[in-house]
Amino acid sequence: MAIRISILGTRGIPNNYGGFEQNAENLSQWWVRLGHEVVVYNPDEHPYKETEWNRVEIKHVFSKESKLGIWGTFIYDYLCLKDAIKQDYDIVLNLGYVPSALFFNFKKKTKAKFVTNMDGLEWKRSKWNNVLRRFIKYCEKKAVSLSDFLIADNPAIEDYYRKAYGISYIKYIPYGAELFNDPDQKFLEEYKLEHFRYYMLVARLEPENNIEIILDGYLLSDMSEPFVVVGGLGNKYAVHLLEKYKGINKIKFVGSIYDYKKLSSLRWFSKLYFHGHSVGGTNPSLLEAMASNAYICAHDNPFNRHVLGNNGFYFKTKEDVANLIKNYTDEYRKEFVEKNRQKIKEIYNWEKVSREYLKVFEEVLQK
Fold this sequence. Notes:
The strands form two sheets. The chain has an eight-stranded mixed sheet, with helices on both faces. A six-stranded parallel sheet has the order 11-10-9-12-13-14, sandwiched between helices. The chain has 14 helices and 14 strands. By secondary structure, the chain is α/β, with parallel strands linked by helices. The longest helix is centred in the middle third of the chain and has 17 residues. α1 packs across α14 and α7 crosses α12. The protein is 41% helix and 17% strand.
């Protein structure tokens, strides 16, 4: 039986922002291929203006986040849910819960089941002040109490919700990734790089992604090979980083890169790839690094350890980073790369992930 699914809570598809958008992009396409109807809600400022993308219906909703800031997000989430309850959806998939959970009471007006991907531990992000952290915890509680089912993208996230709220209606389903097999060295020329002669990280430039620990450790190692930082440069913390490392030419802030082949090629040819995310669950950029043969050094936390296991190096301090760089060895590259690619093939596979979501939808609808 075909299921009519709506996806809310993203900055739209095709993806030009981050993990939830990548999730929506890939899941929606798989579900359409499997015979289901899918509608994705896009903010009005998204550059894609058509009403259909790869057989996925697109609904454009007022946001104006560039002008209204966080209030634009409130308005957008409210309008998306207000519209969704008027449609004949079977499933409303909410990617995230802040601030959308404030409006989850709308579910009383629809037969649709609310399934919510709870993302990482949002209230732990260091960029939030105490007032915002309390607000996020309030939204978290609303999402838990009003959703019909919860998705956790990492077992550590699932464990947190089971223990914190005493619930059983939650399931671990990770993100997916596509194996990359076609690296092109020509992309190195754009940034004046030599293959396996540079270090790299890809992240939103936010404090909880440990950018400064990584870059301070790199500087402490006193290596001359450049460090490439990929991430948007428009936020306050990015401005701080640009100022802090101003004049250090071997640190290259290159902004965001959305060309998948270019980004994957840069990962492929990096000497070491650093992943600093610490409060999310299964981070899509880590999976993409695994899928593109990166030799990975990750921040030491339960989320990253679950994904990488023994097939990467770990750090907590800038001294750890410096030691990894100074004591670099190629000894484990082939083994780590092969085992990480096998994980992408067997576990973090978009078709498998999409089918796991569908099992949840079918179970919820049967109830």
